[in-house]
């Protein structure tokens, strides 16, 4: 069975600081997908990014970047120059290649103070 | 275009009553998912539809829970004889397909269910 672990339960930073969220996953699948979702105080889960297991290229999109390393089963997510609007709970998730349901981590609450 | 919609947004019911929760996915999305979010259990998968079929019902916690999807669109999650432990936010998501390139799921605002 798949398992996703987000060891950090809460991170508090001051605006403009960088924030890195850790995610470690366990899977026996050779092909799978990893996701990051954001859940702001309004409650709606917002899709942020997706990576395929066969593509370890790390990317930057605006203030977001991610570091996918299969060797350590990690899929970390960084917010650069954080803003108050980044305050939310961030979830890392895994899905099999076909199908499929998301297995979520426990979430990391990010609080950005002005 | 419109996102995933769910109704009602809030539902308060008495223990033992049946409830129906509705999900309207993004138009054209063939895959539909139900999850629930509670403080103790986090985000849990309930059921997955591809079209009108449910190839994965593995997350339904008991036989009091059932779901159907009609016309490849709207889905209803039914909870019979509700219990207090059913209190949670029930989230619906849809994706363009259930696999491959277009499998990112887009979530609705959820239905907050409170069982008294």
Search tags:
heterodimer, A: mainly beta, globular, B: 116 residues, mainly beta, 7-stranded mixed sheet, 4-stranded antiparallel sheet
> What is the overall shape of chain B?
globular
**What is the helix fraction of residues of chain A, given as a range?**
under 10%
Which strand-content bin applies to the residues of chain B?
over 45%
Q: Please summarize the sheet with the most strands of chain B.
A: 7 strands, mixed
Q: Outline the biggest β-sheet of chain A.
A: 6 strands, mixed
| Broad structural category of chain A | mainly beta
Task: Extract low-pLDDT stretches of chain B.
Answer: none
**Care to count the β-strands of chain A?**
12
How many β-strand runs of chain B?
11
Low-confidence stretches of chain A: none
Q: Please tell me what the overall shape of chain A is.
A: globular
């Amino acid at each position: 069975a798949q398992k996703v672990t987000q060891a950090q339960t809460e991170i508090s930073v001051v605006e403009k600081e960088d924030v890195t969220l850790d995610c470690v996953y366990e899977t026996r699948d050779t092909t799978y997908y990893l996701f990051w979702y954001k859940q702001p105080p309004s409650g709606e889960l917002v899709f942020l990014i997706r990576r395929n297991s066969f593509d370890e290229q790390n990317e930057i999109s605006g203030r977001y970047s991610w570091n996918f390393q299969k060797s350590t089963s990690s899929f970390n997510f960084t917010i650069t120059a954080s803003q108050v609007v980044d305050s939310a709970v961030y979830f890392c998730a895994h899905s099999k290649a076909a199908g499929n349901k998301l297995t979520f981590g426990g979430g990391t609450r990010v609080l950005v103070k002005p | 275009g419109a996102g995933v919609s769910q109704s009602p947004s809030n539902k308060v019911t008495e223990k033992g009553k049946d409830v129906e929760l509705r999900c309207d996915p993004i138009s054209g999305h063939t895959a539909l998912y139900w999850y629930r979010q509670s403080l103790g259990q986090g985000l849990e998968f309930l059921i997955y539809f591809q079209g009108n079929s449910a190839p994965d019902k593995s997350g339904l916690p008991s036989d009091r829970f059932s779901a159907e999807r009609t016309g490849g669109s709207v889905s209803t999650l039914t909870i019979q004889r509700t219990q207090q432990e059913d209190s949670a936010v029930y989230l619906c998501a849809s994706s363009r397909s259930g696999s491959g390139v277009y499998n990112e799921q887009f979530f609705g605002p959820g239905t907050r269910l409170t069982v008294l």
